Here is the input.
Amino acid sequence: MRKLKIIEHISLDGVIQHSADDGDFPYSDWTAPYRTPAGRDAVMAAHGERFDLLLGRRTYDIWSGFWPKAPSSPIADRLNAATKYVATHRPDSLEWGPFEGLGPDIVEGVRRIKSHEGPGIILSGSSTLTSTLLEQGLADEVLLAVYPVLLGMGKRFF
Here is the structure.
């Protein structure tokens, strides 16, 4: 059985939202001032050498606009090689592959992919999907990368 790890970037006051795509959020890309090579290396180590991705549709759309065109690097190469399992009602519109839609029942779709052999599954971003997986007890591990900032508003992890 595959393990599902949630990796979230979170402010001291629990905000995980990163863009205004989720509403009127003024702090787009708030983690940028705190990024370091050591932090990048720690997040990559948490992903592992080989993994698949579990993504909500919004995160998939954002990432698919960037990572396929990104220059070759350890992170770009691993993300592009990963199978992307996507929570979507429009699987026919997915292009950044390899990919697979979760199907109409997200919880059953996640149980199905976890039951198969394969690399670990990483969920990053996708805050709505994160909440559902936590409520259903489907996450095997949660890694919170905590940033030393108070945002005061935005979608929270807890």
Remarks:
- The longest strand covers residues 4-11.
- The two ends are 27 Å apart (CA to CA).
